[in-house]
Amino acid sequence: MASNGSPCKRPAVKRSLSSLSSQINEWNESNSGNGIANINAKKAKPMSSSIRKSSYQEPQVIMNGTQDFMPWYMKYEPKVVDEVAIHKLKLKEVTTLLQPMLEGKSNTRIILLSGPSGSSKSTLIKLLANEFVPKFRSRPLNSMTKNSQELKSVVEYCGSSTTVGTSNMNSFNDFLTQSTLRVGSNLSLLLVEDLPNVFHADTRLNFQKTLLRWLYSEDKKLPPLVICLTECEIHSNSYSESSFSVDNQFIAETVLGKEVLSHPFLTRVKFNPINATLMTKFLKIIAKKERASFSEYKWKQVNDHIKELARNCGDIRNAISALEFWATSSLEGIGPRGDLITREQSVSYFHCIGKLIYGSKELSDDNAMINDLMDSTSSLLGDNLKLGILENYSTFHKQKFPIACAEKIVDALSLSDIMSDGNLFTHLSESLEYPCRKLRNVFSTLSSTRPHQDQSPHGRLYFPRESKMRRARAKFEREADEYHDVSFYKYQALHSFKDICHLLGFYAPLIRKKRDFKKKVLNHYLSTLKNDPQESLEIRLKNKDVLSIDDEVDFLNRIGGDIGGINSAQDAAVLDDEVSIRNLSNFRNKGLERLKEAVDNRCGETENEIDDEFEFDPVVDSDDTTRPLCSVGDYNDDDDDDDDDDDDDIYEMLASQSPRKLPTVP
Amino acid sequence: MSLWVDKYRPKSLEALSHTKELNYFLQSLSSEARDLPHLLLYGPNGSGKKTRCMALLQAIFGSGVYKLKIDVRQFTTPSNRKLELNVVSSPYHLEITPSDMGNNDRIVIQELLKEVAQVEQVDFQTGSASESGGLAHRYKCVIINEADSLTRDAQAALRRTMEKYSRNIRLIMLCDTMSSIIAPIKSRCLLVRVPSPTNSETIDILEKVCKDEGVSAEAEIFNKIADSSNGNLRNALLTLEAMALNNEMSLKSTSAIIRPDWLVVILKMANHILKDKSVGCLVECRSTLYDLLAHCIPAKTILQELAFALLKNVNDDTLKLAIMKCASTFDERLRLGNKPIYHLEGFIAKVMCETSS
Asked: PANTHER family annotated for this entry (chain B) (predicted)?
């Protein structure tokens, strides 16, 4: 903030703010790589103002003169809880959650406050902490030395404090470890506003693990931990990346992961954008206090302007800045309407889909609503929006509408998918608009004939399953590749990907599983034949194909998992999946490496040697099966029906025995 | 042990079991190994194209063609992206599958063929081949699997390459259908149709396998398997093995046929669609569709199987016509669009509408 600013310089404050927010919007430009810098830039806003005042009892150090030059949103930052712009119920929810936690009577260990920016999350929690924390602090025995007033009520995690360049993957962990003793006489609230760089997968996993450790910790007395998460959507340009992940949906599900979120010791409070009534109230209070800043001409319009601001913007910080700018700018011509400068109220993904399916309350004219939507939602949403429509149109009227309507909608979607100008990845701009209008058109005729007037027609909206499907597909492809390698190196058989998809992916594991079972039965039998190595050898020879199954290498389960339907749950199992896929890739590696080595070794030998080895070294283990097929074929010619009957006898015999007896057979 | 389908795969021309006429034809080709033409083998899935192709190579080069190895080759696209491709090869041939290379198949094919062609093949078996005219085979064979999935671009590039390097390279292309192969390529190849085995041929093969494996089976069941496999020998053998293992190596005529799970799912879906024409059913179908797609079942196959399953369940001719019409519409859209789920769901919704009146 400018220390010697004159009134004409004030707009600069607003501008730097808007550049900040535009920076947030353009995250995806500079996405993953230097994400941390951006986070810090964003988080800097609330912190810089509030940290300093974390103990509000202190007398204001800022002199009256300089106070004028602070941006209004800092100047009029709430000083007591009652001043916070928040719905009463929400306030009560947070209070009733926080109090028992501070008393140590609650199971909740983490409170997660999530919501869009400027919805009073951090302001509220800081003020509440200042009010309650000193109350619940137990008096230290040697209370003479310490005045509990001097202790900070809030301890904040500063991810940015570590020097640039050093790894701060563990900084969060360190922070929590250091803070575990902030209980009892120096009780304080741990506040996490500034996250580690969650765009970096490992850091994010580390962060989640740390939180889990905190949740599962044996320690009964832990200071209350509050996480303020400013959620936002980051519009992704890249077509292929349109999945539900932290890179384009910066929300609790993607940042914290399913496991943390569903833990019973974590309570989540969702904040909504501040509603128009509250917003108007607070803006009017501020305007009254700043009466001097308004010119006569503007003062007349101020109520209209505030109303307009409140209608357009649920972000109180931004609304105050906009009001300040309007009041102090020298431009007299700016009317209450027209060139309103507020943060673009981005329509969130689900909000957008909801509007399309159920229509909008404010705008009764669907065409105008869709025009608005098409302007505001960046076309970047593109395919994702269409998939969202497909996923969710059926929630209308709880699926109770004629199939013909559904047909129209899906048909429109299908048509829009082929509206391209030759290039596979660029759709015509109309291709998004068409299904949207069709959808509205179909449903607007239906909504007048709502079947059950009493129950709410709104269903739950889901995130499209496309990304889930793509992940499952990637998993299938990886497994198919592995299967290909296994069957090549172990059985000398080449299978095309197509065949694996159609037939082998199902049949081969089925067959191998049966054989694996047989092998286990046979092994039991063989263990009873220790005294008769000759016979045991013979049986091994005869049942080579069964014994060669190796459950470390062979596929015993349907490739890609059983077909059972992909659920549409909105939850973001994304992060967990990433980990499991990573583990999966290592699962079969060892066995495969062994097979490859065996093949390489064999390549050096001449065929003659292989045959020799085959005749004189009949003891079977899985490595042996890498022998070329021709020799195996020879071997099989020796097989006669007798052997297989034998095999069956063994099988029958063992199957009839109860499993408990088996080990006791000498 | 390898699957029966691999274990009983014939390794030489003499051992090939069905469609005898074709075997004589291939034998005569192999006897004139010196000027083997480019070949285009076409025929339905599981009819033995690859088997015949390998058997032919075996007849020409000896059993060395079965000594396969996989190496990773690197290619660079014009946009400087590195591509890695697994190439299966023996000393005498190498094979590629266009679906592994995605949109860059033109570059891969050109580079690979050029690389192969620049190396003159030295024939170490000259001595033994002297009676068949010396230097019998100084070329390397390149097998292109699934040639029908080559892009137009790649096919056009192939045309030029085929002429330029025909001295050192012989191409053997395998495809299910010739309709997407461009005419210039067809004209440069000797076209060989590989028909699928007739039911009686399939039954013979199944019987032989059962005898060798010691599976006792009632004759009726072979018929059933052959019917359900639809002329796909691979399918028939896999079904046989799965069933044999499931039934303790003795098949009764009443034993249940084991079909691929995805096919069963599609059949169920078809029944469901015709019984319950509601939005709820449509939503259930969508999750099934997503699952099928997740298992890499091509959208086209899903549409095709679904359409046929629906046709089976409908008796009215006008309805059949309507279903076929829907199927063809959405088949085209599948080809043009890039998110199959819209079109598959669109098809189901449309069929529900058409059949509900």
From this structure: REPLICATION FACTOR C / DNA POLYMERASE III GAMMA-TAU SUBUNIT, REPLICATION FACTOR C SUBUNIT 3
